[in-house]
Design brief:
Elements: E1 3-7, H1 19-27, E2 32-39, E3 45-47, H2 92-102, E4 105-110, H3 117-131, E5 140-144, H4 147-156, E6 161-166, H5 175-182, E7 186-189, H6 196-204, E8 208-211, H7 217-226, E9 230-233, H8 240-243
Parallel strand pairs: 1-2, 1-9, 2-4, 4-5, 5-6, 6-7, 7-8, 8-9
Antiparallel strand pairs: 2-3
Amino acid sequence: MKTIFAHRGVSSLAPENTLSAIKLCVDYQVRWFECDIDILQDDTIVLSHDSTLDRCTNRSGTLFELNRQDLERIDAGSWFSDEYRGEPIPTLEQLIALMNQYQLNANIEIKSGDVSAEVCRRLLAGLDCALNQLDDGREYIISSFNPMLLAEFKRLRPQARVACLFENHTLNDDWYVIMEWTGAEYIHPQNEGLTQQQVQRFKSKGYQVNVWTVNAKDRANQLFNWGVDGIFTDFPQNFLSKYQED
């Protein structure tokens, strides 16, 4: 089975990390999506790639300065198009409800956190609690670039499947030690510069390999021929007919 992950939802057609972008997975029969989570000052967990509001909302400033009640005054959609004017920043609870409603599966990326270790612990605890609300049959992978967070989350929730994210320049000879240390089942390497020999090494150690971010069809085809298990893409709608079922 080859897996197509809608990167931050169907982010080529709707604003990234919003419920609208994730709901589009249903329209295109994409069963898996990827999203990013971070935490607010009052421990509300929200979907956001950045720790600041500047790039994808009508506000400036730091995400962590916000509380839940601030979210209703933030527009996370009009930067993308008029159609999504007023689109809110979703909470993790809303995401879980949407997954249950539409029977979707998620790769949830924990942002590394730049406030404090204690805030990171609260983020992990809140994620662990939220996942208990998932219906039976819903699947998830928890990923991060921060192996310490992954190792701690695996300790907190041993049944969770976790994935180590690597940029090309951080994929050094110690990758296997990091994978073992975190207890990860998946390795998520960067697309750029990834070689067939690297993929073979990952597979030979028994890991599943999902590559980010792959938008070209020929590159996706090459990676799948190398034995890659999945790709993250901004254009999941382009891969439907070939990779919906395998």
